[in-house]
Amino acid sequence: MAQRHILVTGANGFIGSRLATQLMESPDFADCRFTLLDLAHATPSTDPRVRQLAGDLSDPATLDSAIGGRADLVFHLAGILGGAAEQDYALARRVNIDATLTLLERLRDAENPPRVVFASTIAVFGPCGGAPIDDDTLPLPTMTYGAQKRMIEIAVEQFSARGWIDGLALRLPGIVARKDADARLKSAFLNTMFHAYEAGRDIVLPVSPDGTTWLISVPACVEAFVHAARLPGGTIGARRAFTLPAQRVRIDGLVAALARRFPTSHSQVTYQPDAALEQLFARQPQLTTALADALGFCHDGDIDRLVARALQA
Amino acid sequence: MAQRHILVTGANGFIGSRLATQLMESPDFADCRFTLLDLAHATPSTDPRVRQLAGDLSDPATLDSAIGGRADLVFHLAGILGGAAEQDYALARRVNIDATLTLLERLRDAENPPRVVFASTIAVFGPCGGAPIDDDTLPLPTMTYGAQKRMIEIAVEQFSARGWIDGLALRLPGIVARKDADARLKSAFLNTMFHAYEAGRDIVLPVSPDGTTWLISVPACVEAFVHAARLPGGTIGARRAFTLPAQRVRIDGLVAALARRFPTSHSQVTYQPDAALEQLFARQPQLTTALADALGFCHDGDIDRLVARALQA
Fold first, then answer.
1. What is the tens place of the pLDDT at every residue in B161-170?
2. Which residues partner with A175 through β-bridges?
3. Domain span holding position A223
4. Does residue A74 share a domain with residue A194?
5. What number of CA atoms fall less than 13 Å from residue B148's CA on the CB side?
6. How many domains does chain A have?
7. Does the residue B290 lie in any domain?
């Protein structure tokens, strides 16, 4: 049997880089070859199984090179995210829709449909009105990013129904804790608060203490991607796009967990709620993820473990 | 004030041609100019307000010419439908996704967002499991056509949320009765039965007498498009994609109505159910269309009126 080919797009990113490391260290994928695609790579790889490819997914030659004839397992994480998609619609369409659809089309193989794990987002839900969210909630995205991810979720389900790919679209909640979170990102505070508390720096939170948000740690997120790769095709039903399990935490509960984790930190936390950020990140309603639960996906378990793992990587 | 420009794509089609006629006869649109776009036009127009454009929407020059700088009201009916999309995915992507997204993008006008009425379809729902369908039902399309229409519905809602267009996506049920229904179309029987009964020809129906299907007449469909054009923007909420009201009729009820309409017809109706056609067209569950109802859309009223109007045009 030919050596399996694994493609990771966005492989230099916060999640992608950790996922690539995890895959290469896993005995399950020991005999695979890997193509890691991103616009650039921070560090050269010394693993002989690895091909690092620097290029733009929306360039057809790069796309062809990345697939290299055939890919058996694809993690598609590259994309124009959140605020960037909102600010540059044309770029977001080119990458998130055009290039992504073309990627899915070029992966089509009716005999051996490749497993494709697509990074979607809870932004597909759009503004949450407070009503609980479950797998049957109708996504009503209003931002470019969430709408484009939802459009591709539909393509993943349709391509899978036709047997062209064996796809899964995983809606990611907030993933913590990005150390180098771009301060311009509206969600930056959710990441920086972890590192600031650890370092004993004071923190001003732009949300209220009773705000609620959905979180998992980056190790839990990477585990979910690896789990999605391993799931036997026959165990997955027609529903291929769903929300990953996440803990719904209160902001003050998170601060309390940080205090338990770092009892000697002198970090002072104050609250200066911003209505827009509160709406985006701290009004997340109750969440039920029955489809993902049944397939064996899970979150960090409890808030102390979330905090510990968020700072692990 | 500049003369309003109305663009109709698919203007030579079953619905498009009737819609164009209705618009041109309506006093509301008397002072407008019209661009009628289709691959070809059956008859030349003598109306001085009309520009007939023959061309492919997926050709950028055709698209630019069709919009002609600005369109104030757009009816987007052109597309690769049902079985054709299933058989030629590449063409369907090019027209239904690429060209349609580009059309929406080129219509963007934040100051005077044009009203865009997009012809969607109940095929967005995919295989119906028997549970009632309403506006909050999660569409789970499995066929290319339904999936692509659903993807554009999401774009219409997102573009409208950003104020770029003032869009509406209307999900069309079965529209009767196409006289020249392509016999290769799986839904052809739903159209030909009307004309065959009127002409006294015998009919073999590929569905069972207790099958149920959602129907409106083509005049009711055209009225819905015109109504969508007239709705004041302020009366429409964030939900821009929804199912049109339709009558849910039993197949034997339809045959009985045809018998009442044509009491002297000698047409003999027999049933030879085909499982696939039954699943596609005669297992449609109960339908509630609260969003459309609240906006004043309506179906033909009763089955006798449906039959009469289906044969009117």
1. 999 999 999 9
2. A216
3. 5-172+218-243
4. no
5. 27
6. 2
7. no
* Contact check, Cβ <8 Å, B147/A140: no
Q: Find, in chain B, the residue whose alpha carbon is nearest to that of A143.
A: B158
Which of B90, B136, B154 comes nearest A151 by C-beta?
B154
Chain-chain contact of A105 with B98 (C-beta, under 8 angstroms) = no
* Judgement on whether residues B223 and B126 belong to the same structural domain of the protein: yes
Helix (H) or strand (E) holding B63: helix B60-67
Q: Which ipTM was obtained for this model? A: 0.96
B15 lies in some domain: yes
Could you tell me the CA-to-CA distances from B112 to A198, B116, B241 in Å, in that order? 51, 12, 21
A92 and A223 assigned to the same domain: yes
Q: Report the distance separating Cα B75 and Cα B11, nearest Å.
A: 9
Res. B313: pLDDT tops 70: no
CB contact under 8 A, A162 and B141: no
Reduced to 3 states, what is the DSSP secondary structure of residue B16?
A: helix
Separation between Cα atoms, residue B190 and residue B208, nearest integer Å: 13
Of A98, A150, A154, the CB nearest to B141: A154
| Contact (CB<8Å) B144/A150 | no
Closest-CA distance of chain A to residue B110, Å:
14
Q: CATH code at B202?
A: 3.90.25
Pair B254, B105 in one domain: no
Same domain? For B187 and B128 the reply is no
Nearest CA in chain B to A139: B138
Closest-CA residue of B relative to A160 is B142
Task: Tell me: do B183 and B113 sit in the same domain.
Answer: no
- Condensed to tens digits (0 to 9), the pLDDT of residues A165-175 reads 999 999 999 99
Q: Within 10 Å of residue A225's Cβ, how many Cβ atoms?
A: 24
| CB pair distance less than 8 Å for A138 and B141 | no
Q: What is the mean pLDDT of residues A241-259?
A: 98
